[in-house]
């Protein structure tokens, strides 16, 4: 099944679905199909829009669910119902083809809830914080370049003789 989906051309599938959605749009059909397919044709042409491609790859399977609900709740003529079902069935391989295209463009599948960390461990870095680039210590935000680590002197600094409170030496 995966080989069949990989052999499909997402652009041709999308063109057929866009044309079919345009042809049946003046009649009693789901109104969201044509805008979704027009957005998909824009995303298909843009080779660097990975985030938009993942959005389209998520909208398409959700629209399959909405198509089923729409057909249950609304009346249609026999021929329009047939064309709506054809459009619904074409969405299934198109979704698979776009998921494969998204993976080829470097897209991720975040939030699928597979129980594993697909993206790898998260490494948090804060500007001016401790990092692993060879610097020992804290760099303030105002510093442009990392300071060299200060040498620790063997003689302790002299303390004032009279300290009246706990917060006097800072």
Number of strands: 0
Morphology: elongated
**Ends: how far apart?**
70 Å
Structural class: mainly alpha
The helix count comes to 5
Query: How much of the polypeptide forms β-strand, as a percent range?
Result: under 5%
Radius of gyration: 30 Å
Assembly type of the shown chains? single chain
**Helix content percent band:** 40-55%
Q: H/E series, N to C?
A: HHHHH
| Mean pLDDT score | 76
Give start-end ranges of low-pLDDT stretches.
112-118
Query: How many strands, which pairing sense, and closed or not: the largest β-sheet?
Result: none
Architecture overview:
The protein has 170 residues and is an all-alpha fold. Helix content is 50%, strand content 0%. It has helices at residues 2-7, 10-24, 33-45, 50-73, 78-104. Residues 112-118 have low confidence and may be disordered.
Essential attributes:
5 helices, mainly alpha, about 170 residues
